[in-house]
Design goal:
The chain is mostly helical. Helices cover about 70% and strands about 10% of the residues.
């Protein structure tokens, strides 16, 4: 909800509709969840309410903006940790579990649910061109590196057949 308010003031039902659309099929947000959450954010000083034409509009406060920035920093650290964690876990993972994960990865790739899709959504019109280019060039470098590992693994496997 704070992310929606980063774009500017919104009224509760407007935010609810966006959440329902974004999480369609995964989560069904209800007014009994959203409005208490907004009140809690307001009580904690992260949003403010103003009444316009009889509707309560919520606006992100400076503290709310700071919280979003900190969450972003924390997310980056969490993603780095998760990457290292999965590297460690997969090293010791039993084969049946690895097989199940491989199937999940194939399904995700077939459904176009993988980082480039997330990246496309993340690098939207709110980001400046230079930042987009920098991020995309870093991703391209990483993907090329990972692709070279995949190519090498394929070559090794194909070489074993001969």
């Amino acid at each position: 909800m704070l992310l929606q308010l980063k774009e500017g003031p919104k009224y509760g039902y407007e935010m609810l509709k966006v959440l329902r659309e974004q999480f369609k099929g995964v989560w069904e947000p209800k007014t009994g969840t959203i409005y208490p959450a907004l009140r809690s954010l307001e009580a904690r000083g992260f949003v403010e309410t103003e009444v316009r034409n009889g509707k309560e509009f919520y606006r992100l406060t400076e503290d709310g903006d700071t919280l979003l920035r900190r969450i972003g920093e924390r997310l980056e650290a969490d993603l780095r940790f998760a990457d290292r964690y999965y590297e460690f876990v997969t090293r010791w993972m039993p084969k049946p579990i690895k097989d199940k994960i491989a199937e999940m990865l194939r399904t995700m790739a077939d459904d176009d649910v993988w980082p480039p899709i997330f990246i496309k959504r993340f690098l939207d019109e709110t980001m400046d061109r230079a930042t987009k280019l920098e991020v995309l060039e870093s991703i391209r470098k990483l993907l090329r590196l990972r692709l070279s590992v995949v190519d090498e693994m394929i070559e090794n496997l194909e070489g074993e057949e001969n």
